[in-house]
Amino acid sequence: MNREQYRIDEKRNILLRDSEVKGLKCLYTNLDTFNGKRSELEARIALTEPDIIGLTETNPKNARWILNQQDFQLAGYNLFCNLDGRGVALYIKESIRSSEMKLEITSEASIWCEVQLRGQDVLIIGVLYRSPNSTDQESNQIIMMITEAVSKRSSHLLIMGDMNFPGIDWSVQTSNGTLQEQHFIENFREWFLWQHSVLPTRYRNQQKANILDLVMTNEE
Fold it and tell me: I want to staple 210 with a disulfide (CB 3.0 to 4.6 A). Which of 21, 74, 145, 166 is the partner?
């Protein structure tokens, strides 16, 4: 998973990873509801042919109906999802050996998967969503969950998600914001991970552009 670069589609907040060498291609995005973006998502999948797809905020904020797992199926992919809260979904190509992984510590909107690579190599993948209104306890759960995933010391680790920490300056890995943000960045340093989102992933009128969506790995 080295020698790889990211391309960011600023208009749609899409983060794509394109390999210069043969490997796995990953697409991650915050959907802000699956139904409203399905056609565009399928078009991008047809264009980029990713092996791994991570989605956050699959459920609408004020839904008049309840989506079920069947509504999220995509042809050619195995689906792993957690539809609690705003919901997350993880897709792995059917040709890749994968299975859902259960951690001892979980959060409301998270899903984890294990992918068997060559030999004894294993890729652990997590997709997470942290609400901007999360309590200290809920934020600590996410930190403990990531800590548990890191402690497994898999050969490859990929964590994607909307963490909603606008006060973190990822260029210097510091925060002058909330205590939750400071706690997260302190733990991030202890995880010895790389955070690959380098450009703002969210723009709103009269608000400072910021990096809310993260892609973290245990490899540079």
Answer: 166
pLDDT digits 0-9 by tens, 157-203: 999 999 999 999 999 999 988 999 999 999 999 999 999 988 877 76
> Would you list the domain boundaries of the chain?
4-217
Per the prediction, the chain carries an average pLDDT of 86
Contact status, residue 112 vs residue 122, Cβ threshold 8 Å:
no
Residue written as token pair 């959060």: 107
Q: Is pLDDT larger for residue 25 or for residue 11? A: 25
172 phi-psi bin (left φ>0, alpha ψ -120 to 50, beta other): alpha
Q: What is the pTM of this model?
A: 0.85
Question: Angle CA(53)–CA(142)–CA(3) in degrees, nearest 5?
Answer: 45
Q: Which helix (H) or strand (E) holds 47?
A: helix 34-48
User: For residues 24 and 205, what is the distance between their CA atoms, to the nearest angstrom?
Assistant: 36
Asked if 112 and 101 touch (Cβ cutoff 8 Å), the reply is: yes
Query: 8: which strand partners?
Result: 15
Domain 4-217 CATH class label: alpha beta
